[in-house]
Specification:
228 residues; alpha+beta; SH3 type barrels; 2 domains; 5-stranded antiparallel sheet; 3-stranded mixed sheet; 6 helices
């Protein structure tokens, strides 16, 4: 009886925790949807959104970039400057081609400030973040931006990426390399990386592969690697 009772008490927190995590995931999607509505009204797109920190010091962090039209305008401006007399005003890596203009978010401090003001009001009105106080942060995703959707990998083809997998691939869960392809293979989408583009850890070197293929469903997290 004692042992059965302990098992019952021990399992309940797991069930409750699973319910809490599921509710948090649903609420985060609601928050992301609201964030995208506000961002769209200012010509922006939401790249990523996450809650970080302990319960009493929560931070809602939103990464932003210009929308497709804004990024196209930024790209045209950069390309025109590179061909004209303003090339010296551009970052050297843009001129050399080691920095892809797609990696630039185009977001300004003013963009973040206006978004934070309007989004903060919406969060309060719709009560999307119940409970204790929190801090809202809005910023660009940075050059080491997170890649989470299939279209992210397609967009940044040719860039250096860092990938951590759920299950080992060739006895290794951590890979870095140049993103060579993102397409369908058999039942699911995959990405193909060239590990030779960067110095690998010992497991990667022992694997001795020229390319590695990773199923999208096996990617736990992925980021761009700035080329400095």
């Amino acid at each position: 009886m004692d042992s059965a009772g302990c098992g019952k008490r021990g399992s309940r927190p797991v069930i409750l925790l699973a319910g809490v995590l599921e509710a948090m995931a649903v609420r985060l999607e609601e928050i992301r949807s609201a964030a995208q509505r506000v961002a769209a009204s200012h010509g922006l797109d939401v790249v990523d959104i996450e809650f970080i920190g302990p319960a009493k010091e929560r931070t809602l962090r939103v990464s932003l970039e210009k929308n497709a039209e804004g990024r196209a305008q930024l790209k045209a401006t950069v390309e025109a400057a590179a061909k004209g007399t303003s090339a010296e005003l551009l970052p050297q890596r843009l001129v050399e081609g080691t920095l892809n203009v797609e990696q630039l978010s185009g977001v300004t401090h003013e963009d973040c400030a206006v978004f934070s003001r309007d989004f903060g009001v919406l969060l309060d009105v719709e009560d999307l973040v119940p409970g204790a106080e929190y801090t809202l942060e809005a910023s660009s995703p940075g050059l080491d931006r997170k890649l989470s959707r299939p279209e992210d990998f397609e967009r940044f083809m040719g860039s250096l990426v860092k990938v951590q997998t759920f299950e080992p691939v060739r006895n290794n869960r951590h890979w870095q390399g140049r993103l060579m392809a993102a397409g369908d293979a058999d039942a699911g989408k995959t990405i193909t990386m060239d590990p030779a583009a960067v110095k690998q850890n010992s497991k990667s070197r022992k694997a001795g592969v020229s390319t590695v293929e990773i199923a999208f469903s096996n990617i736990e997290k992925a980021n761009l690697v700035p080329e400095i």
